[in-house]
Amino acid sequence: MKKVIVPIGPYHPLFEEPEYFALYCDGERVVDVEWIAGYNHRGIEKISESKHWDQITFLVERICGICSTSHPIAYCNAVEDLAKVEIPERAKYIRCIIGELERIHSHLLWVGLAGHFLGYNTVFMWAWKYREPILDIMEMITGNRNHYAMMKIGGVRRDIDDAYIPIIRKILEDLKPKLNMLTNAVLDDPVLAARLKGVGVLTDKDIKEFGALGPVARASGLDIDVRRDSPHAAYDLVEWKVITQNEGDVFARAVVRLLECFESMKIIEQCLDNLKGKKGEISIDVRNIPPGEGIGHYEAPRGECFHYVRSDGTGSPLRHKIRAPSFNNIPTFKASCIGETISDVTIILAGVDPCYCCTERAIVAYDVNTQKKILDGSDFIRLSQEKTRKIEKEIGVAPSRWEEKNWERDN
Amino acid sequence: MAIIKIFGIVAGSFFIFGLIGIMSGWFDRKLTARIQWRVGPPWWQNFADFIKLTGKETVIPEGANQFLFLAAPVAGIVATVVTGAILISGSFFYPLKWDLIIIIYLLMIPSISIVIAGASSGNVLASVGAGRELKLFLSYELPFILALLVPVVKFGTTEVAEIVKLQHIYRINLGYLSGFIAFFVGIIAFMGKIGYVPFDVSEAETELAAGTIVEYSGLSLALFKLMKWILLSVGISFFVIYFMGGFSNPVVGILKYILVLILIVLIKNTNPRLRIDQILKFSWGWLTMFGLFAIVLAALGC
Asked: Membrane spanning segments where (chain B) (predicted)?
């Protein structure tokens, strides 16, 4: 059988980030899919080892622009677990509010993008318009539309003033009917149903084998949610429920995400009730981080975000390990994409709401037989520079002086 | 003298339908933007796009068949312009007895030129797009022809000018139930022809990164864009003439034209892209069924 590789990436309108999927196709049907990461590796775990505990909160915020409060919350949970501190109640509610606002904006962003990937740009624009008030709330209470810088070890950095609470409530009230309309429009559209139902089905067993998380797992009937299963912040102090669907297709994932927005609103409103008219500490001082290990997790919009820190009692962690949810979700493509057409594969790829900047890994080449390391990250950089040099020589372009200097220094 | 006159008609068709097409393309963009709560481009945007594209370098990929690669957009443009010329000359100068048949044939050429463009690019994405365009072509052509056959069955002539005249004597085609059904079948099939959502599978930006025209740049891309615009204006004008009584009253005629354009833009903006097998099923199932039903109704005189 003659197979053709249809490349999705490294730069492709389907993804906002550099990412490469090689679709091995037989006509329109995809018979195999290969995923290559590492185009944008930043070495955050390594940088983290050279920063102070307090600085890392803002470093991990930069891992991802969309779930930019999930990583800080998970990291703070990890350090608080290590230092054995309990944060004040008011800080718990504020953490919940920020986390849930982020979930709404992330899910709306996904709905819009999914529409765009299907060529349904009206849904794209409408969903992003409805997402805008959420970002306005964020700007109002944190000062930033993204990268809120609200978390710190031992609590939160800013209080939510009583004056803001009615405004937040009003924006959320206004958003509810619009969100309802969007949800109904998406769920009742027969053409969307034709495109999404029965596409990219992941069974209960697939989910467990690949260890998929978040809305992807919940859409396949797996009732898992870190917010409920391992309560932190104020999630055990408010009423809400975990949304699950049983179909396991892309449509079910869309339903889970849209309905989760309403649950998030419920959580935010209860948190606001508990904040209003009360005073209290928003953070406690955590001076010394004792030696030991700490684990923190948080249900990011895409699934469980996991942070592990180890301390030797100094000012920065000895080891900081981050596992973002997309790292577990992306390999499910092996189960869901094979046998589908190219058109469906693109929406399946987008259907797990992949976040590649969270997932980036450095590439290391191993010999298959001897398991010996042949090339690592720095070798790849050297190879890439050598190739540039070669091409420059071939086409007769003189390398710039700055580059020349770097080249001499490195070699 | 006749040759000069024919040349004049073709050149006139190019300018008239080119201008109307570019403005229709702008109207489409503007209305789409308003539906999506965006501002949208100014009225001269498509002219600016076209002029800028003509000034850019045309890159021919290494693996491409150079002649076919460059000839494809030209063939498409020539076919659409000649269709427009036949519409003009049929209405004002030389009525042809079989011009409907010629128009049906000529309107197939743009699709074929897109297939050739994709196949000659030497690019995987383009060839996948070309394969899709071919399937798309096979799927919408049957209901399109069935829809155009309805007035032929009703009036017993394949001369477009004659059909316009008869529409004025009796009733416009849209006024009959059969004509009404045929009009919508035809419009939906025509959306496949111009490759608008839900039928934009061959260009599918988020799947194939522009598919068939992925390798085109500069003037060749500009010609493809122009072909799409001319096809849009010629197609809609044809529908107005064929189903809605034509442009005998210019103001009403322009209103009819805008109405059809708005209909197409609305369909485009309220649907996601279909998969190619779904399009085939839909076209050969529902659309063809409705087309046949309309023909039966027309034979019964409804």
From this structure: 6-27, 67-94, 100-125, 137-157, 169-190, 226-244, 250-267, 279-300
Question: pTM, whole model, 2 decimals?
Answer: 0.82
Cα A36–Cα A38–Cα A42 angle in degrees, nearest 5 = 160
Q: What backbone torsions phi and psi does residue A308 show, to the nearest 5 degrees?
A: -125, 130
Range of the domain at B15: 2-300
Is A121 in Cβ contact with B32 (below 8 Å)? Answer: yes
B280–A contact, CB cutoff 8 A: no
Q: Which two tokens stand for residue B278?
A: 């779904």
Count of the separate structural domains present in chain B: 1
Asked if residue A49 lies in contact with residue A359, where contact means CB atoms within 8 angstroms, the answer is no
Query: By the CB < 8 Å criterion, does B208 face chain A?
Result: yes
* Residue B267 in contact with partner chain A when CB distance is under 8 A: no
**Thinking of the domain A44-359, which architecture would CATH place it in?**
Orthogonal Bundle (1.10)
pLDDT tens for chain A, 411 residues long, are 467 788 887 888 777 778 888 888 887 788 888 887 777 778 788 888 888 888 888 888 888 888 888 889 999 989 888 888 888 888 888 888 888 999 999 999 988 888 888 888 888 888 888 888 998 888 888 888 888 888 888 888 888 888 888 888 898 888 889 888 888 888 888 888 888 888 888 888 888 888 888 888 888 888 888 888 887 777 888 888 888 888 888 888 888 998 888 989 888 888 888 888 778 888 888 888 888 888 888 888 888 888 898 888 888 888 888 888 888 888 888 888 888 888 888 888 888 888 777 777 766 777 777 777 777 767 777 787 788 788 777 877 766 555 666 666 665
Where in chain A are the domains? 4-36, 44-359, 365-410
